[in-house]
Amino acid sequence: MCGIVGIVANHPVNQMLYDSLLLLQHRGQDSAGIATNSGNGFSMYKANGLVRDVFRTRNMRSLLGNTGIGHVRYPTAGSSSSEEEAQPFYVNAPFGITLAHNGNLTNADELKTELFNIDRRHINTSSDTEVLVNILAHELQEATSGYSLDPAALFKAVAMVHKRVRGSYAVVAQIAGYGLLGFRDPYGIRPMCIGFNETDDGAEYMLASESVALEGLGFRFLRDVMPGEAIFVDLDGKLYNQQCAENPTLNPCAFEYVYLARPDSVIDGVSVYASRLKMGEYLADKIRREFKHGEIDVVMPIPDSSRPAAIQLALKLGIEYREGFIKNRYIGRTFLMPGQAIRKKSVRQKLNAIVSEFKGKNVLLVDDSIVRGTTSREIVQMARESGAKRVIFASAAPPVKFPNVYGIDMPTRHELIAFGRSDDEVCREITADALVYQDLDALKASISDCNPAIKNFEASCFDGIYVTGDITREYLDRLEYARQNPKPQIDDLVRSQLNLNLARAD
Q1: Can you state the percent helix, strand and coil of the chain, rounding each to 5?
Q2: Which of 102, 114, 165, 350 has the fewest CB atoms below 10 angstroms from its CB?
Q3: What is the model's pTM?
Q4: Which residues make beta-bridge pairs with 33?
Q5: What is the 3-state secondary structure (H, E, C) of 205-246?
Q6: DSSP letter for each residue of 24-76
């Protein structure tokens, strides 16, 4: 999960890109980057950290131009947190391209071999984004013979990218001297939308992962980019679009609606907030079937993403809704933290219980999902320590049993608490008195009720069905190996050598 943005405007875009990345910060806290285009040259700055920490006034002043792209990132399965892998990426041939992407290429290793042996291009990092920008550059060179570029050639190149690349990808790219390109994978797994702004000097366009970024900058939401579609906006603000995939189908990631996206965004015609209210309604129906009237005294959300579902659940069941946990807003999202020990420690720094709301009550805690179970276990213990008589735990999502290979950091099967366990076993693991999971059909209905045009979903973390059709057990085994055996980073090697030298000195 990353956040991307691209803007073509009639004035410098550096501040606009910065502001839009702040609005997309929830999609990645590992690194941030901006690349702008002035004339035929690029300016770029990227580094590890939050947006507000990465960019200083001197960096912003160097980002010149009326077009640009931006990116916020967190590392996916097997990738490193090296600053070298911060996006955007750049290649200088055939035209000069900067590119940022949200998603994960499932055939990245295969493509690296093709790039080296056939396309004669060298990859310097383990990032699949570097693979993607080189694939696009090669196909642009093939489509234009290295000379002038027009929209037809661009769309031909994107069509070839779709044929070569597998996995999930929403892409924004700048081509020096030409304009902004955006495209989405043929399955529409990762979101991207387009907005516009009419000015006295002409139209301005913006591509972004979520509609909240458009609205926050005063752009009008135009529509979602279709699966397989490419959008090109030239430097004069003229927009071109074309479907570049042979058999595109819309399969939005269900986890975007459960947890990843902001509630004030609209993705593929679905209000994220409205879908979470629906999740609460469907979950209430299941709880009504499984618990007698009077068994639950109060409903409490685990802040923040579960709040809409909890409110609607309490309303439908006619049970009192209370806030039992207060969130420290200056602590990062625990789901995005890389280590289990760090994640566990951060829970109590992030949440504090209001003891008076728990004492002597049968409490129903509602969370958006249960992934590794560490947070859930800590929260149940906090409720008990605060005097809860009975703790029932409800998840607005089904059990997360399988790795997500399309850009969400849940790669290892044995890290998932529901993998190989029954619901009763998970309940015991998180030390709750009872556990209720949303049914998968109910989750899908929560989303499709808001947009009946959506018939299919990418829900592999719940059902193990991978829509790209190329995920095997061997692939998942390789992901787990990469997760458990990360490549040593330069800093680690330097530190090890330093320790060795000190030991010899002693």
Answers
A1: 40, 25, 40
A2: 114
A3: 0.90
A4: 46, 71
A5: EEEECCHHHHHHCCCEEEEECCCCEEEEEECCCCEEEEECCC
A6: TGGG--SEEEEEEEETTEEEEEEEES-HHHH--HHHHHH--SSEEEEEEE---
**Are 227 and 244 spatial neighbours (Cβ–Cβ below 8 Å)?**
no
Helix (H), strand (E), coil (C) string for 264-300:
CCEECCEEHHHHHHHHHHHHHHHHHHHCCCCCCCEEE
**DSSP 3-state assignment of 349?**
helix
Q: How far apart are CA 37 and CA 321, in angstroms?
A: 51
Distance CA 372, CA 345 (A): 14
Give me the residues paired with residue 8 across strands. 67, 205
Give the burial class of 448: count Cβ atoms within 10 A of its Cβ; 0-12 exposed, 13-18 middle, 19 or more buried: middle
Q: Rounded distance, CA 300 to CA 363, Å?
A: 7
Two structure tokens written together for 481: 């190996």
Residues of the chain with pLDDT below 50 are 77-78, 335-338, 489-506
Tokens read off for 452:
């009946």
What pLDDT was estimated at residue 345?
A: 59
Q: What is the structure's pLDDT at 480?
A: 83
Residues taking part in catalysis: 2
Which run of H or E residues covers position 197?
Answer: strand 193-199
Q: Which two tokens stand for residue 95?
A: 């035209």
Q: Which residues contact 53 (CB under 8 A, 6 or more apart)?
A: none
How much is the pLDDT for 80? 54
